[in-house]
Design brief:
352 residues; alpha/beta; TIM Barrel; 2 domains; 4-stranded parallel sheet; 16% strand
């Protein structure tokens, strides 16, 4: 079966955050002996003519579109129509947070299926069914985690599928990015001193020449803020031994010396975090953390992070208005935000 996984451009410039969702699906498909092509539109920003020529030539059986945020809607609509025109028999699947609007996507775009939630297991169940011609809608209805239009063109959501547990979360295989020559964008070398005024590298003096890598240490969040969309409840922290091996691999194979933690919620498993920061220190890794809730930290916590190599923390402040924080159901107070920012500065960690 000929399968392609492609990204969508969601900002004016290519993002430096790795396409972990697309990579996870490609790695998952390998386990059912399908080697998917990776078409990284976000990075390469191919022209309309180039994209047309690509899909006309390839005639994929299945194309998976990764749409990580709602701003990908317009491009998803454009891309799905282009694929349908160039390759009418291709089955088009949408994954990512845009799938929260599955009924609109299925009715307004040339998308055949939406994967709802983490897709690693769902895609393994769905793709083999797509080999059946004609499609067996009873089998589709029995496949959890998808949305589609049935024989009568009525919207059908089959219920949530299984998500990987903390132990089952697979860490990214960077050879996928090496294969499409986008690797240096997502794991760049720390620049030379004349560029250290740049915000991203202002704290990296002495690390020039080593690479910086994004690492996910947990999936999910302990909160349910009203502005944030999440498919699955709960917080899944990846086991320490698995993270440690991954960090060692990044350091040994790619000469990584600086880690950016890309979690949507870092540090809520306080015992695991205390052990993890020791691993950073033992491996000689400097790091910064994103997605930190201000109620997660104390001054002692932040001091320990600083002592073990942390130079920057990004908090989910969201608002300086107590009323808006309440409407958002942030489950914290304005005073929590102010106190965390004060502590962060006092121990010597940067923040914004």
């Amino acid at each position: 079966m000929k399968v392609c996984i492609c990204t969508t451009p969601i900002r004016p410039e290519p993002t430096g955050f790795p396409p972990f969702g697309s990579m996870a699906i490609i790695q998952s498909l390998r386990k059912i002996e399908i080697n998917a092509e990776f078409y990284n539109i976000d990075f390469y920003r191919y022209s309309h003519q180039e994209i047309e020529a690509y899909f006309k030539k390839q005639q994929f059986d299945v194309v998976g579109i990764s749409a990580v945020v709602s701003t990908a809607y317009t491009y998803t609509k454009y891309l799905s129509k282009l694929i349908r025109r160039m390759s009418p028999d291709t089955v088009i699947i949408l994954g990512g947070n845009l799938a929260a609007s599955a009924e609109i996507i299925l009715n307004k775009c040339e998308v055949d299926f939406c994967v709802i939630g983490d897709g690693e297991f769902i895609i393994q169940d769905l793709v083999p069914i797509l080999k059946e011609k004609p499609l067996n809608y009873d089998n589709l209805r029995d496949t959890k985690g998808i949305a589609f239009l049935d024989e009568q063109k009525k919207f059908c959501f089959t219920g949530y599928g299984k998500s990987p547990s903390a132990q089952e979360i697979e860490l990214p295989d960077y050879t996928i990015l090496e294969g499409d020559d986008s690797f240096d964008c997502y794991m760049p070398k720390i620049p030379e001193p004349d560029r250290t005024k740049n915000f991203e590298y202002s704290g990296h003096l002495g690390l020039q020449g080593v690479r910086t890598a994004q690492v996910i240490t947990a999936k999910g969040c302990v909160a349910r803020c009203t502005f944030c969309h999440r498919f699955e409840p709960g917080y899944r922290a990846i086991p320490l031994d698995k993270l440690t091996e991954h960090l060692k691999h990044l350091k040994t194979k790619y000469n990584v010396g600086y880690i950016g933690i890309g979690d949507e919620n870092f540090g809520s498993d306080k015992k695991l975090t205390a052990k993890l920061i020791k691993v950073f220190s033992e491996l000689g890794l400097k790091w910064h953390a994103g997605g930190v809730r201000t109620r997660t930290v104390t001054k002692e916590t932040l001091q320990s992070w600083y002592d073990n190599g942390c130079d920057t923390v990004h908090y989910g402040i969201e608002s300086g208005s107590p009323k808006i924080l309440q409407v958002m159901e942030k489950n914290l107070k304005l005073e929590d935000n102010i106190q965390a920012l004060k502590w962060t500065g006092e121990v010597g960690i940067s923040t914004i």
